[in-house]
Design brief:
ten-stranded mixed sheet, 430 residues, elongated, D-Maltodextrin-Binding Protein, domain 2, alpha/beta
């Protein structure tokens, strides 16, 4: 028994020694190097296996355009997004278009075809669904369009089957052009500017008619703001440094109309004002220039209260200039898209009295190729929920279906017309 125990211990020692020698032998494989270091690095070899592909699938009823945009976003931006996720570095068009077991969605097939690659097969009848992903171009970050538009977009996305993405815009003219170029499906626009676009006048050399009216939401006041208490009327702007809005903007044409009514709208051969020193600035830039004393007054056309003016009035004494009734009547006779409007006292810090001015409508437009169902859902979401959303944005308190259905210069989208008809208002459609 004792001998067996000894033999077991001996065998264990031999095995341990053999394992140690084996490890040393493995460590010595490939040599120790010239420096005599016995701890050389192990040699790595490739491992050959099989793999399956990671594939994105789409329902057949997703719109062709939506899938096309999605695929384009992935592959066109892959090189710039490797730092976001390493897998972007493994993408290639050839591999993306390599599937043969399941036909491709028409939207994906369209993208790969543009890159010179024909996929094995395309699913018949797929991609015919209506897009419910809508891009909504609004306005600058200091204006009402952006603030209110962002709230509208978020609520619709959260509470309907339509996804709306709010985008920063560069004014009414630019917004219409974004619709025409296919860069957005929805846009905010002044009621006068959309009429210019539809008819090809003033700001537009040629008509743009790819859009329809969704709804008029609220009045956009022509606000003349100054930090100079001696400027009490429009006539007092003579010889002053005045921002008349960004060049070619709707604000510019509003400024021309009002200045002309007061005899200050004369232009020279180069199109420059002769009776004021005009600068051409956005809302935010105008407010900054007023703060810094670089200009005496500025035209700002937006729903009151406007963020740029609110910020200005909290840092510096600011005043709004009223229009008198006689000149308002002259404006309304010459330009019927204006409406007399009052900005109530207390709208801005230090505003002790009502301010009388003119206003145009803030309107949502939609491309004609957006589905009726999508526009109906959006319109219903805006108006049906307005009373409960005033805390989200004060402009909800100004909405009414009657005003929403009041536009006559541009026909309504069928989806919006369907909603207003249910509320008892008939509107014109294309």
């Amino acid at each position: 028994m004792k001998e067996k125990t000894v033999m077991k211990k001996l065998m264990s020692m031999i095995l341990a020694l053999m394992m140690a020698l084996s490890l040393v032998a493995c460590g010595d494989k490939g040599g120790s190097g010239d420096n005599g270091d016995s701890a050389s690095k192990p040699e790595h070899t490739d491992t050959t296996t099989v793999a399956v592909g990671a594939v994105i699938l789409a329902r057949d009823d997703v719109a062709e355009d939506d899938v096309y945009k999605f695929v384009a976003d992935i592959f066109d931006n892959a090189a710039d997004l490797v730092t976001s996720h390493a897998k972007y570095g493994e993408l290639s068009l050839e591999y993306g278009a390599s599937i043969t077991s399941v036909p491709y969605h028409p939207g994906a097939a369209k993208y790969f075809a543009e890159k010179g690659i024909d996929v094995a097969a395309v699913k018949d009848g797929a991609g015919t669904g209506a897009s419910r992903n809508l891009r909504f171009v609004t306005g600058g970050e200091s204006g009402t369009y952006y603030a209110f538009g962002s709230v509208i977009a978020q609520h619709a996305t959260n509470n309907t089957n339509v996804s709306v993405t709010g985008l920063v815009g560069n004014g009414s003219k630019s917004n219409v052009e974004e619709l025409a170029d296919g860069n957005a499906e929805l846009a905010f626009c002044q009621s006068d500017v959309m009429a210019y676009a539809y008819n090809g006048t003033n700001l537009f050399e040629n008509p743009i008619d790819c859009f329809s009216t969704v709804a008029a939401l609220y009045m956009e006041d022509v606000q003349i703001v100054t930090t100079d208490p001696s400027i009490k009327t429009v006539a007092d702007l003579a010889g002053k440094n005045v921002s008349v809005g960004a060049a070619g903007s709707g604000v510019y044409f509003n400024a021309v109309d009002i200045l002309s009514a007061y005899g200050l709208g004369d232009l020279d051969a180069d199109g420059k004002f002769t009776k004021i020193n005009a600068t051409y600035q956005s809302f935010g830039d105008s407010a900054d220039s007023l703060k810094d004393g670089k200009i005496d007054a500025a035209f700002i056309v937006a729903g009151a209260p406007t963020t740029a003016i609110m910020d200005l009035s909290t840092t510096k004494a600011a005043y709004l200039v009223s229009l008198d009734d006689a000149h308002i009547d002259e404006l309304l006779a010459a330009s019927p898209y204006y409406t007399k409007h009052v900005i109530p006292a207390g709208t801005y810090n230090g505003q002790d009295e009502d301010v009388t001015t003119v206003a145009v409508g803030a309107v949502i437009l939609a491309r004609d190729d957006v589905s009726e169902d999508a526009i109906y859902a959006l319109t219903a979401d805006i108006f049906d929920n307005a009373p409960d959303l005033i805390s989200s944005h004060a402009k909800y308190g100004e909405l009414s279906t009657e005003f929403g259905a009041s536009i006559t210069s541009v026909p309504y989208h069928p989806g919006a017309a369907k909603y207003f008809a249910e509320k008892g208002f008939d509107v014109a459609t294309k």
